[in-house]
Amino acid sequence: MKKILVLIVLLMGYFSSFAQVRLGLIAGGVFAKTSGKSSKGRAGGYLGAEADLKLGRLVSLRPQLKYIMKGESISSEGKGGYNYLELPVNLVYFIPTTIGRLSIGGGPAVAYLMSGSWTALDGVKEPIDFKYDKVNKLDIGLNAVASLEINRNFFFSVNYTYGFLNVWSAEYVGNNKNRSIGLGVGVTF
């Protein structure tokens, strides 16, 4: 966790060297699952940093770097918890409103699985062995985002990420791609 915080601080320092950049922190909850037929959703959370690179009066590029907890629950097998470092890069368009600015947009998202565990029905919890369990560490997908900024320093956001790659590469597991929806709050500086 310390390495993640150091990386976030370094990235914030890098992006702050640009003239039209605002930096912020974001945190929230996430409901995630895989696309497998027997997979049910699982709640988690995320914490990260965001940069707002102004491209025009109503358009910005907003990369985020988030530590996010995803997972799944399969009633006949158990529960899995997966910890990702995720980098969505969203192109957003702003719509002025009476209470602030509404932004909508989307873009690519890349995630790297850092750790995970599986809890069987009998309650035994084991860490995921990446080689033995044939787990893909890399995930690539699309992200859609909408947020409401209030007084340009505080915002609420909702996002949906649709993963393209199978979480498990073993043939017997089938099609298991990440899906997640997140609700968050953030502050910009």
Total strands = 10
Termini distance?
A: 23 Å
Radius of gyration: 18 Å
Helicity range:
under 10%
* H and E string: HEEEEEEEEEE
Global geometry: elongated
Number of helices: 1
Quickly give the structural class: mainly beta
Descriptive account of the structure:
The chain is mainly β and 189 residues long. The chain contains 1 helix and 10 strands, in the order αββββββββββ. It has an 8-stranded antiparallel barrel. It is elongated and about 55 Å long.
List keywords for this structure.
189 residues; mainly beta; 8-stranded antiparallel beta barrel; 1 helix; elongated
Task: Write a short abstract of this structure.
This protein has 189 residues and is mainly beta.
Task: Furnish the topology, listing elements before pairings.
Elements: H1 2-15, E1 21-34, E2 39-40, E3 42-54, E4 59-74, E5 78-96, E6 101-120, E7 125-127, E8 138-150, E9 154-166, E10 177-188
Antiparallel strand pairs: 1-3, 1-10, 2-4, 3-4, 4-5, 5-6, 6-7, 6-8, 8-9, 9-10
